[in-house]
Design goal:
It is built from no helices and ten strands. The chain is mostly beta strands. Strands 2, 3, 5, 6, 8 and 10 form a six-stranded antiparallel beta sheet that branches. Strands 1-9-4-7 form a four-stranded antiparallel beta sheet, with no helix packed on it. It is globular.
């Protein structure tokens, strides 16, 4: 399972349809926030997409449009945060 051991970004996922995000492990008192890439070229927070403790959350993206998403861990101290993205049609970059 992919792991974050310092503040920073997860892999980037290109997704379609329903996607489930799993986060667990030691958050190092930080917050991971899941974001999507907007048409303006900037990442924007996904509603209800911020976690400070283990969580499984489903997000529904359009089926016919590819949406680029990533998680960003911030304000952590010595984390060991596991994350995974399931479902939807996805390509990791």
């Amino acid at each position: 399972m992919p792991t974050l051991t310092s503040d920073g970004d997860t892999s980037i996922y290109s997704v379609r349809g329903a996607v489930r995000v799993h986060c667990s492990g030691d958050f190092g008192s930080g917050t991971i926030t899941w974001k999507y890439l907007g048409s303006d070229g900037s990442y924007h927070n996904i509603a209800e997409g911020a976690f400070t403790a283990a969580a499984d959350k489903s997000f529904n993206f359009p089926d016919k449009v590819t949406t680029t998403v990533k998680g960003t861990l911030g304000s952590s101290s010595n984390p060991s945060l596991y994350y995974e993205v399931f479902g939807g049609s996805q390509v990791v970059s």
